[in-house]
Design goal:
Largest sheet: 6 strands, mixed
Radius of gyration: 29 Å
Shape: flat
Strand content: 5-15%
Number of helices: 23
Low-confidence stretches: none
Mean pLDDT: 87
Number of domains: 3
Distance between the termini: 78 Å
Strand order of the largest sheet: 1-11-3-6-2-4
């Protein structure tokens, strides 16, 4: 039977006091800023808020589980994980099984902030992530197209100051009702606008403080297995959980000495910070755990996540982590990053090879490993260039078969054996004439372009930052530039179609590319290679 839970203010107060906590089986906060705004608009319009599922935890059982706090100040780069509660309150607590996203959205909107990256800014620059707080436009107008009636938006202080009708939503928790209403008199508004603003603010205050919109169902004294079953059933709707989310939840619940959630997320974060940056996911890291630990087939199957296998995974975790980091560093030394790595799963056979051979950081540098590194690079690059998609369908079966061959390899990376396995599964690394012709037409910006150029330009140290550069500058192919160059108009479209293709592309180090800019090839070569023989050889 569902029970009334009071107002939004009462719910937020229980988040503050940590009467409501998140069990370790919960995933991260996944809503974006627009979804939070839509939630507040729906509440203002009186739409149903949905119900919650809680798990009442008696104090004597708290030590059996891990709990997390709700996100308050979300930062896309620095604070996007829920923080582990190191010292949960020593009293009865309520764990949230269903409703985390809505409760976190309320917590951020009324108490915290939301910082996401501004376009055109560097990821490493702090100013790229300005702090934004939720504001309500007190003079909101209904939008017939979207169905919204009240305009909520996350704004910086500067943005909010540009319109005196913006009301910071967090004030509704910290300031009294009369003081809030009286503060509107200080705004530069005409009589009608002031009337509308007061009405909007009254409704917002009633929505947060007075309306009983919270209803919940409560489970008591359930076992972890029962709670997992409830959790899986309840999370079949809403923003969907992936299967890996649920399996990660099981791993989190079963690891004894390592915080599985923190271990997996921190590895993902560190992998993505290597080189020029990657976009690996927790799904990949979970699959890596199965592959490197030789657990069953490399697939997200419930039987692979039993207690015995999770114990093996936990014991092997330090070595798995080290091998994955070494594999990412190796890919970065090949010049790969999030922009040109077409398939993240391609790293797994490499990581498994490094893991089985107990490779250390010296593998990246020492000359006795140079041939092995080059064999790995060429095998990987060819797998990324195949248009049919090596790392697509049948991935789990392929990875399991590759693991068997690598495990049987005694010394070097077994390129020929791996290619034989791949060919038997219709994933050959031999290129047909048609495929080669297609690669000759690959375009600037295609994820395959860097990989292909790295084969065409051998001998580069790709650990240094390289750009894909136009040999004849792209700025010379506008209609006005072609006209000034004396090119006849019938040729314009043909040239515009070709200037972004492979024959007009090269690899240049970032600093050199910045120096080249719009120089024509003969001008550039005359400056950088004044010796005719050196110029000809290049």
């Amino acid at each position: 039977m569902y029970k009334p839970g009071g107002s939004i203010k009462a719910l937020v107060d229980k988040i503050i006091s940590r009467d409501y906590v998140l069990p370790a089986i919960q995933r991260e906060f996944v809503w974006n800023a627009d979804q939070i705004c839509d939630l507040f608009d729906s509440l203002m319009q009186g739409y149903p808020f949905g119900t919650f599922l809680f798990w009442k935890m008696e104090q004597h059982r708290l030590g059996e589980y891990k709990f997390y706090d709700f996100v308050r100040d979300f930062h896309e780069r620095d604070r996007f994980h829920c923080e582990l509660l190191q010292d949960p309150p020593e009293r009865q607590l309520t764990a949230v099984l269903d409703g985390q996203q809505r409760m976190t959205a309320l917590n951020i909107g009324l108490r915290g902030s939301f910082a996401w990256k501004m376009p055109g800014k560097r990821w490493t620059t702090d100013s790229a992530f300005p702090t934004r707080r939720l504001h309500l436009d007190l003079l909101s107008e209904a939008d017939a197209e979207s169905g919204s009636k009240f305009h909520f938006e996350f704004l910086t202080e500067q943005q909010a100051s540009e319109n005196n009708a913006w009301f910071r939503c967090g004030r509704v928790l910290t300031e009294g009702y009369d003081a809030l209403i009286d503060s509107l008199d200080d705004l530069d508004l005409d009589r009608e606008s002031l009337r509308v603003a007061r009405g909007t603010l009254r409704l917002f205050h009633r929505t947060i403080h007075d309306k009983d919109v919270i209803y919940y169902y409560e489970e008591e004294n359930q076992s972890l297995e029962d709670v997992l079953n409830i959790f899986i059933r309840m999370n079949s709707g809403g923003t969907p959980l992936s299967y890996s989310d649920l399996l990660l939840s099981i791993a989190v619940a079963q690891w004894e000495n390592i915080d599985a959630r923190d271990a997996i997320h921190s590895l993902v974060d560190e992998m993505n910070e290597e080189g020029d940056g990657f976009k690996f996911t927790k799904d990949l890291v979970l699959k890596a755990g199965l592959m490197l630990s030789d657990i069953g087939s490399v697939g997200f199957k419930v039987e692979n996540f039993n207690q015995a296998n999770m114990a093996i995974l936990e014991v092997n975790w330090p070595d798995i982590r080290a091998s994955m980091m070494l594999a990412v560093q190796l890919l970065a030394s090949f010049g790969l990053n999030s922009q040109n790595l077409r398939a993240e799963s391609a790293i797994l056979p490499i990581a498994y090879y490094l893991y089985k051979h107990k490779a250390e950081e010296s593998f990246l540098l020492r000359t006795e490993h140079a041939v092995d590194r080059e064999n790995i690079r060429r095998w990987l690059i060819r797998s990324l260039l195949k248009p049919s998609g090596i790392w697509g369908s049948g991935l789990d079966t392929l990875l399991t078969a590759l693991r068997e061959k690598i495990s049987a390899s005694l010394q070097t990376f077994p390129v020929q054996e791996l290619e034989a396995v791949m060919t038997a599964r219709g994933k050959t690394l031999t290129f047909t004439d048609v495929e080669i012709d297609e690669l000759c037409e690959v375009q600037y910006g295609d994820k395959r372009t860097f990989a292909l150029l790295s084969l065409i330009f051998p001998g580069f140290d790709f650990s240094r930052h390289f750009h894909v550069d136009h040999i004849y500058p792209q700025g010379r192919f506008s209609h006005s530039a072609l006209r000034r160059a004396g090119v006849s108009e019938p040729l314009w479209e043909a040239l515009k179609q070709k200037y972004n293709c492979l024959p007009n592309l090269q690899l240049l180090e970032g600093t050199i590319n910045n120096e080249k800019r719009q120089k024509m090839p003969h001008e550039w070569y005359a400056k950088t290679r004044p010796d005719p023989l050196a110029r000809k050889e290049h």
